[in-house]
Amino acid sequence: MHMLHTPGDDAQNAQPNDMQSALTSDEENRAVHDLAAQAAPLPRSRWHMFVSLQGSQRWRYFREQLALRTAAVLAALAVVIFLAVQLLTPKASPQLYVAIINADASDSSVSQWQNAIAEAIGLQNGRNGGVFIDANFDLSEGGLTKLQTLLRNAQIDVIIAPRDAFVTLAGYGYLTDLTQTLTVSQHALLKDAMVKFPGFDDSHEDDLDYDGSGKGAEEAFGISLAHAEHWDSSLIGSDSEDLVGLAQDSRHLAQSRQFIDYLDISSE
């Protein structure tokens, strides 16, 4: 018996073979693509390209492709180095720091006096390793806190103040006994101009409630500026007597002594 053969039977029989061919074709395409990708040359860096060139071609390539980038990198590196040096290099502190208490002076007059002192004692003019006159210590407006902070860090060398403020600062223990800190010749010359004040009594350190301000022994903490040739009393402008003293823990005793000599103080 012969079975009838219809066109649909051919289509059904051919369909699996066509699908297999399609799958095989896709796999082949992927394989070819992978091989092509592996065979493709890797992109070369600008530096490798520069090295591979010769003579004038290398110079031209550098100018066109590398010069601006190199300049930008060097500029950025220079900025980083400059900032690092600025941050890591400490600025020189003043070699003579003079604090004027309760001053009533213009910035220009203070600056002129500062320049005169620097020239006279052979130091630079300015706080960066030179002479610095600071007239911003108003005790009624936070100046005491600033003074205490600077004294605690041993930055102030000389203190000039009107008598009432000087008495207070001496009582706090902020000034030295000039018979101990001035030279023998200075003491002999200035002894008649020296003024004694009560100091700070630190004999009760264990008693937290005890205030030793102005309860210590009387010592020569100040020198009157009434007859100082190079002191301008208008810098403070008070009616009372102005005095000068050397700060406790000063790191620049030699310069402080030079400053005392510069004032040219007499007892008459």
TrEMBL record:
Q: Region annotation Disordered: residue ranges?
A: 1-28
Transmembrane domains' residue ranges: 66-88
Which keywords has UniProt assigned to this entry?
Answer: Membrane, Transmembrane, Transmembrane helix
Chain intervals with Polar residues compositional bias: 12-24
Q: What is this protein called?
A: Uncharacterized protein
Give the originating organism.
Bifidobacterium tsurumiense
